[in-house]
Specification:
single chain, mainly alpha, 434 Repressor (Amino-terminal Domain), two-stranded antiparallel sheet, disordered C terminus
């Protein structure tokens, strides 16, 4: 799975604006610098899992909403598991006859 840090940054920015927080205030509440928050939001910096967790906590959103843009359950429901691995729904290979 490829993590799209630019999209994560855009989601953070969107949630931050919905909660009427400035980058400076989010930085203060997460104990990060406003420059670091800015670089995360633009995708110039790859945030660590710990940083993303702090941001999610302050913004009152789930970590999976920041990373995947939806709940993990919704994301996972688009896939089905087979013994060959994960396949998009409808593309599951079966050995059953």
């Amino acid at each position: 799975m490829i993590i799209d840090y630019k999209r994560i940054g855009l989601r953070i920015k969107g949630y931050r604006r919905q909660t009427c927080l400035t980058q400076a205030k989010l930085a203060e509440l997460t104990e990060m610098s406003d420059t670091y928050i800015s670089r995360i939001e633009t995708g110039a910096k790859k945030a660590s899992l710990g940083s993303l967790a702090k941001i999610a906590l302050v913004l009152e959103v789930s970590l999976d909403a920041l990373v995947f843009g939806e709940s993990l359950r919704n994301y996972a429901s688009r896939f089905a598991y087979s013994h060959e691995g994960f396949c998009p729904k409808g593309k599951v290979h079966s050995n059953r006859k």
